[in-house]
Design brief:
144 residues; 5 helices; 29% helix; globular; binds zinc ion
């Protein structure tokens, strides 16, 4: 379950929210001038992004306010929460914001398996015996 940080209420369970689809889909300036295909594309066609995706969310059982969220569709990592009407945070802002909420998103995505990636610990212990074996001063003593 996602832990979503509402801009008005703070962190709440995903069950308090409703998904509102893709964000930043502007209403056509003059809908009557659109062809049927253009109108249908506005109504029904949305991006199917793999990666960072800007979407709308409604805090339906809380403050009942809409807001935008930038979420990674692969890792479910919530990269940004920002108010309606403000532009989508670009890639540069996303890269800097990714380092700061790292601890916050770790608690947010507690169910995801991607958070606990640790470096292998056997590398430091295997280096020292291999260097003593390659040294030419005492190979026979090491073998016996
Ligand atoms: Zn709220």
């Amino acid at each position: 379950m996602l832990l979503i940080s509402c801009p008005n209420c703070g962190s709440r369970d995903e069950t308090e929210f409703h998904y509102g689809g893709q964000a930043h889909v502007p209403y056509p300036e003059n809908p009557n001038e659109l062809t049927d295909r253009q109108w249908a594309e506005f109504l029904f066609y949305r991006d199917n992004t793999k990666g960072a995706f800007a979407e709308r969310w409604l805090h339906s059982t809380g403050c009942r306010q809409w807001f935008n969220m930038l979420r990674d569709t692969v890792t479910y990592d919530i990269q940004a929460v920002y108010p309606m009407g403000t532009p989508r945070p670009d890639a540069a802002v996303k890269a800097t914001a990714r380092t700061t909420p790292e601890t916050g998103t770790a608690s947010t995505a507690a169910d995801s398996t991607t958070t606990g990636s640790a470096a292998p610990s056997t590398s430091t212990t295997s280096i020292s015996p291999s260097t003593s074996e390659t040294s030419t001063t005492a190979p026979e003593g090491a073998i016996k």
